[in-house]
Amino acid sequence: MSTGRVRAKKKASSVDQSPDSLPLRSSGRQVKKKAAETADDDDEATSEKKYRKCEKAGCTATCPVCFASAAERCAKNGYTSRWYHLSCGEHFCNECFDYYYRSHKDGYEKYTAWKRIWTSNGKSEPSPKAFMADQQLPYWVQCTKPACGKWRQLTKEIQLTSQIAKTYRCGMKLSNSTKTEGSDQCSMPEDLRVAEVSDHWWYSMLILPPLLKDSVAAPFLAAYYPDCVGMSPSCTSTNRLLGESNTVKLEHLKSMPNLAVSGLNKYFQPFYQPNECGKALCVRPDVMELDELYEFPEYSRDPTMYLALRNLILALWYTNCKEALTPQKCTHHIIVRGLVRIRCVQEMERILYFMTRKGLINTGILSVSPDQYLLPKEYHNKSVIIVGSGAAGLAAAKQLHNFGIKLGIKMHRLGERCDLIQEGGRITDPTIDKRMDFHFNAILDVVSEWRKDKSQHQDVPLGEKIQEIYKAFIQESGIQFSELEEKVLQFHLSNLEYACGSNLSLVSARSWDHNEFFAQFAGDHTLLTVGYSTVLDKLAEGVDIRLNFPVCNIDYSGEEVQVTTTDGTMWAAQKVLVTVPLVLLQKNTIQFNPPLPEKKIKAINGLGAGVIEKIALQFPYRFWDSKIQGADFFGHVPPNSSQRGLFSVFYDMDPQGKYSVLMSVVTGDAVMTIKNLDDKQVLQQCMTVLRELFKEQEVPDPVKFFVTRWSQDPWTQMAYSFVKTGGSGEAYDILAEDVQGKIFFAGEATNRHFPQTVTGAYLSGVREASKIAAF
């Protein structure tokens, strides 16, 4: 008998260790032996069989209950040889495990069918626990009645939908959602397990991370394994293209407009696609960014839940970015079985506020009602003064205003064609243009090779290095360019001076294109047909802007920052954001007390204040149409190097033809040429050029015209920054650093990734609004 007992115990332990080793049937002799052994069990063993704890270390469930109730002999809340743990409060018994896992049981076919779908779409293991979590756990839903908000468990057969989650009330009969079982259903107590979900340790006891069903992010992420981006592989919305490799599938997806997201603007691409090159303002849906890991370190080991919610929030925002995205608008889109849905809803709010603060969502010209704020009350107890109201200042002001701290815009896609027209009216042979463009880019490639092992102290002017490489090429190759080819090369040099905002003799050869090492914006070049003022006017709506108060002094020596204007008016706030142009900082237009750190002053002076000017002309009709044949811009080949940059490119600012407007730029040394001319003299020079380019026809006088004077405007004095010879792109990062958590800086000259652009200025404002809100 003792031997029999030992064997019985071995068989019992084998159940715990490997359910697959269980025999499918027993002989009569074995049945008799088991009966004899049972009769010999003492009282303690009999008592133990009535009840068994969960074997998961740290599980708080003192008396587990099987949620599955699938097997006829389901243990319910009684004895089972093993409890399978999914979370503290969610277990299934060994009998229900066998019901789905054993091939002779009725539930086996359902499990294997699910397993086939999971395996074909997903990457994670299709285990029995994953099956139970994905298919058998009951859904939980929150009462939407404001005075209630209690969580209720739905019966097993009910499939939760976004509509049910949006409208659910306690006691609602889901077969007929217009009726309830009684008016006092909200008075029923909430399940005790709900309170545990909020505890910090609860998530660590979760066996499997939540995978959302029917996520709004699914159309954006069809090229990814769904379980790698927080979505369930069992949903039809996440089905991958079977029988195709990832590369083939990605090419198929690229050919689909807007990644199959109905109604989405094609320029909205919030996520990287697999194996895609860097793009600005995109996130990898399968990886947490560094700032996300810093904010949410608890997800560093397994980021699945965070990725699921972040991707969902981003997708919801990009699907409708005209309205503020609130936690209430996200909650009913979180579809996942089990108590973990409660935790997902709680975490979603944290993630949404983080993404709002970072400017990933709820940003731009979003209109927010006066009684609505995008961040909770703990962010509201700050006062901020913003010096400057350009794109950076307005962006920061709009963000902070929407945080609670005291538009459909049409775009025209620009084509690539740019005919180069010589004075005299002849269009340059495109092959000549292509040839000189190739040589020009080859010169820049040599500059890139030269600078690889050069330090800041070995830097030279870009113009000097280009001339040196050009002369060496002519000498070594023996090639002689024609007079026209030399002029076309001058045109390309003027374009480079336009990009830098300066004569190339001042620009760093080592760091002139430092921002190209970072991910840049993808997609088409486009024109805001209504002009940037539409965006700026919208940003300014609802913001307290005080005009004609030039700031001359900022004193941050005390607890509050004191801002003094030229008329002696003083203002005080906890934080001050400075968004004035770089050149005003270089000229000490604003005095700081105490003085700015030496490191920041050195960075300020390490950048150049670039200057360009523009002229816009409105004509009575579009005289240029017949010659340029629908192109969005055309180039002016300079007659000699001394006129390089003088009206080098003309842009059609009204492609619809309603107003007939051309705009041209003045760059490089040509800026000084027109500096002392009055507007009419500048117009006369521009019209002389246009009449040379269209010599074969009559060019009418403009109806209206406008000449910028950015270099002479006392509050501007520049166009955009560049890295001076001997400087470094690091200066942009140093300029962006705050001083003592009191003085903050924004503007294009503080954005290392996107300098020289209105976009860069705007994003710097959003960046600083995020920093100020977090302090």
UniProtKB/TrEMBL annotation:
One function term, GO molecular function aspect: FAD-dependent H3K4me/H3K4me3 demethylase activity
EC number, as in UniProt: 1.14.99.66
Stored PROSITE patterns: SWIRM, ZF_CW
Source superkingdom: Eukaryota
Subunit organization: Interacts with its cofactor GLYR1 at nucleosomes; this interaction stimulates H3K4me1 and H3K4me2 demethylation. In contrast to KDM1A, does not form a complex with RCOR1/CoREST. Possible accessory component of the polycomb repressive deubiquitinase (PR-DUB) complex, at least composed of BAP1, one of ASXL1, ASXL2 or (probably) ASXL3 and one of MBD5 or MBD6. The PR-DUB core associates with a number of accessory proteins, including FOXK1, FOXK2, KDM1B, HCFC1 and OGT; KDM1B specifically associates with ASXL2 PR-DUB complexes.
Function: Histone demethylase that demethylates 'Lys-4' of histone H3, a specific tag for epigenetic transcriptional activation, thereby acting as a corepressor. Required for de novo DNA methylation of a subset of imprinted genes during oogenesis. Acts by oxidizing the substrate by FAD to generate the corresponding imine that is subsequently hydrolyzed. Demethylates both mono- and di-methylated 'Lys-4' of histone H3.
Similarity comment: Belongs to the flavin monoamine oxidase family.
Descriptive protein name: [histone-H3]-N(6),N(6)-dimethyl-L-lysine(4) FAD-dependent demethylase
Lineage of the organism: Eukaryota, Metazoa, Chordata, Craniata, Vertebrata
